[in-house]
Amino acid sequence: MMIRKAMTEDCHNLSNLAYRSKAHWGYSEDFLAKCRDDLTVTEAYLEQHLVHVMERDNELIAFYSFSVQDKKLDALFIDPEHIGKGYGKQMWSDLLSKVKALHIAEFTLDSDPYAEAFYAIMGAKRIGEVASTVFPDRKLPLMHVYVK
Question: Which residues of the chain, if any, have pLDDT below 70?
């Protein structure tokens, strides 16, 4: 298992991983189609975010992206075949070490409702709700993390 910085040649695979991971939770095809732009990782996105991937035997199995400017976790996705194997916790630990090295003491994240329990176990606290970027009437848990 290796965690490394994402490269431009990873964009297509990261976008597919994000889509598969979101689809794992049983969302409708219509919902997923409307989310596709938000789940697409571009070269410009990589330039603007701290993005790291986990790979095993040259297969991408997870990634996270963090906006240093906004002090916000933008995404953490695990390939559905690897959910429940502890890789999310490993990615979270790596994220915290990178954020701590940048002297960021706290950050926020907009959680998918299905991921809220994971983030709570990792120490994030729900502080409110935020409108979805795709469906403004849909509310997402807004969570806060203190970096220790």
Answer: none
